[in-house]
Specification:
By secondary structure, the chain is of the alpha/beta class. It has 4 domains: 43-132, no CATH class; 136-184, no CATH class; 187-263, no CATH class; 267-342, no CATH class. Strands 1, 6, 7 and 8 form a 4-stranded mixed sheet that branches. It has a two-stranded parallel ribbon with strand order 2-3. Strands 4-5 form a two-stranded antiparallel sheet. Helix 3 (26-40) crosses helix 8, helix 11 (187-198) crosses helix 15 (244-256) and helix 14 (230-237) crosses helix 15. It has helices spanning 2-8, 19-22, 26-40, 54-65, 67-80, 84-95, 97-102, 106-120, 149-158, 169-180, 187-198, 203-207, 216-226, 230-237, 244-256, 277-289, 305-319, 329-332; strands at residues 13-15, 45-50, 126-131, 142-143, 146-147, 270-275, 294-295, 336-337. The radius of gyration is 21 Å and the shape is globular. The longest helix is centred in the first third of the chain and has 15 residues, at 26-40.
């Protein structure tokens, strides 16, 4: 559905950011996207949303990546026991108060991580920041015809038709069709399904999960035994040092069995989620240039832990829907293909 929305609103080609990177912090999320672009062999302009200029983002990225600043951040984070992003902002504020304002917006943090990852992986490209208007990351308010993704999702789950005021016409059509087909996850089903998998994890296995650090496995293990609901568990184990976002990422990583070591493996394939006619031309270029196999569905992917993870995450998502499709959907699902005139 999301792929179809992107293609209907102007995108030519949609590639998957592997799930192990999606369920990580901004740095790893950006790494997954940059690895995919780098492996595709395509060149061009890297574009992302931000509320400041690329110049400011680049200045901030260079400041933070300096070894002496990295040491100060790590030391401050350890001593004050605050989340790492807060420690970064505090140290940058000491050095350059103006640049510290850049870090107050999570979208800027992600944009900055794209720049850092592009440099780290040698992606030679121009960068362009699309200015975000009014509604910022996770804003719960609406601003005229603008709203954050979080707000739109809350309206959707509440059955409030006002969500249509903030979406393009094509998106509204696709979402309505999807909701009629039971595409949205049933939160109670997801919580029960996820919790059953969490109960099977030992304290030792939790310590190896992506996002679980600094003895957090002990608190998480006790919380799993003391609660019965995934959402209540997130509130129960929250600390000053671990934000809700980080806890959610760690919990879903635990449900899927994503280990820290998984993040260190190379990307084994590029998965195509959808394309229009122009995108199919790009795909022909990618097939000639790509450093890894390009697959149209999981049945074409090489046997590897990433393929199993893709299949498992898709299956659990399907089982959490009001009426699951069943079958081996992730292996049978083909990319969304639409003509260029369907924009």
């Amino acid at each position: 559905m999301r792929t179809e929305m992107a293609l209907s609103c102007g995108a030519d080609l949609v590639l998957e950011n592997p799930v192990k990177y999606v369920l990580s912090g901004a740095g790893r999320f950006a790494e997954g996207a940059i690895r995919t672009i780098k492996n595709s062999g395509l060149t061009g302009t890297l574009s992302f949303g931000a509320s400041t200029s690329v110049i400011n983002l680049d200045k901030t990225a260079n400041l933070i990546s300096a070894p002496d600043v990295q040491s100060k951040i790590a030391e401050y984070s350890a001593e004050s026991r605050v989340p790492f992003p807060y420690a970064v902002q505090a140290i940058v504020r000491e050095t350059d108060k103006e640049l510290s304002e850049v870090l107050k917006d999570p979208n800027n943090v992600l944009a900055m991580e794209y720049l850092l990852a592009a440099k780290r992986f040698g992606l030679d490209c121009d960068c362009f920041a699309v200015e975000r208007n009014a509604a910022q990351h996770n804003d719960v308010k609406t601003f005229g015809r603008y709203a954050s993704g979080k707000t739109v999702r809350e309206f959707l789950y509440a059955g409030d038709p006002i969500w249509q005021s903030f979406c393009p016409e094509k998106t509204i059509e696709i979402l309505k069709t999807g909701m009629n087909g039971g595409a949205l996850v049933d939160k109670k089903k997801w919580s029960d399904l996820a919790y059953g998998r969490l109960l099977d994890l030992s304290r030792e296995s939790l310590s190896g999960i992506n996002g679980v650090t600094e003895g957090f496995e002990n608190r998480l293990y006790k919380g799993i035994l003391a609660s019965t609901d995934l959402y209540a568990l997130a509130d129960l184990v929250k600390t000053k040092r671990f934000t809700h976002a980080r806890i959610r990422q760690a919990l879903i990583s635990a449900v899927l069995g994503i280990k820290k070591a998984d993040l260190e493996r190379e990307q084994p394939y590029i998965r195509v989620l959808g394309a229009n006619e122009e995108g199919r031309k790009l795909l022909r270029e990618i097939r000639n240039r790509s450093a890894v196999p390009v697959v149209m569905n999981l049945s074409e992917a090489p046997l590897c832990p990433e393929r199993d993870l893709d299949a498992l995450s898709g299956k659990l998502y399907d089982l959490s829907r009001p009426a699951p499709f069943g079958g081996r959907t992730e292996y049978e699902q083909r990319p969304v293909i639409i003509p260029a005139t369907g924009r």
